[in-house]
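User: Some background: our group keeps a shared notebook of sequences we're curious about, and every so often someone picks one and asks for a predicted structure to add to the entry. Today it's my turn. The entry only has the sequence so far, pasted here. Could you supply the structure so I can complete it?
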Amino acid sequence: MHGFEKYLPIWVVVCMGLGLLLSQTVPGVGETIGSWEVGGVSIPIGICLFLMMYPAMLNLQVAELRKLRRNPKPILLTLFSNWIFAPLVHVGLATLFLRGNPQLMVAVILLGSSPCTAMVLVWGKLAGGNQEQNVVNTSLNTIAIVFLYVPVVSLLTGMQNIPIDRVMLLISGAVFIGAPLVIGIVSKRLLTRAKGLEWFDRVYRPFVGKVTIVALLVTLIVLFALNGDVLLHHFDKLLLVSIPLLLAFPVVLGFNLLATRVLKFRYREAIVSVLIGSSSHFEIAIASAIGMYGVGSLAALGTTMGLFWEVPVMLSVVYIGRALGRRGFWGDPVAAK
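Assistant: Of course. Here's the predicted structure to add to the notebook entry:
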């Protein structure tokens, strides 16, 4: 991981603080940014969210999905963890700790129902996992998100009798998942024809990845500049929403560790399955929360806490996995060294 990305948790905190500082020291900054909108959607936030989503869609490699037949167990495990176990754990903990705070409950559900399709490639590389399997898994999750994300969120919120704007959720899915996916497929095809696959993988994809991080940090500055007053008056709410998010992590992680051991995975396959099964796609969650409730909502701020915790949590999974691998947790300690 490059130096800038290595310290991403620090930049996240700095940008949150900068946005909060702007909200309190620059008169009217929130109103000015908030006025830049079309159809109720903030233009700067919309651009940043697209730039956050687009690179993840470039990871889709349909041809790689043919390899599913070789070893389907890791794929089946991550699908179960991402789309059944993790969402149910998150909705259960949200119900336990956030009853009476429907927007925060929705924020947790949005985060728990969105498996990561981008950063796990970085985590898998750091952990020395099977990157071929990682590409297959992320490609499948990219397709799964298109078809499952909106129905799963609708089902879980309905189970808790939480009213949400399902039409706006569907629109958010189309705009922030469907559109980047289509543009990603088209741009990849055009660029590889013009420049070749090697240039696309070595030059274009890394460049776009850097743009994503910048867009992510700008999004945080804008969010907190817009919502400084809301944050200062509801700081306890952000601490409260962190409780189910942090408690869900060891539960989901423990399940994936145990499952990979019971299913006799080797280290390089096990660690990738654990990473993908324990991660979340905070970009989609933030986009959906903003689409349904607006930039200045508790739901939008609640999903940013998923981003706040995601990087340190996933780095800890990398180190935990490597430590367990060295101790022979999966039966092949040499592979983890």
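Suggested note for the entry: The longest strand covers residues 37-38. Residues 43-51+60-179+217-326 form a domain with the Na+/H+ antiporter like fold fold (CATH 1.20.1530.20).
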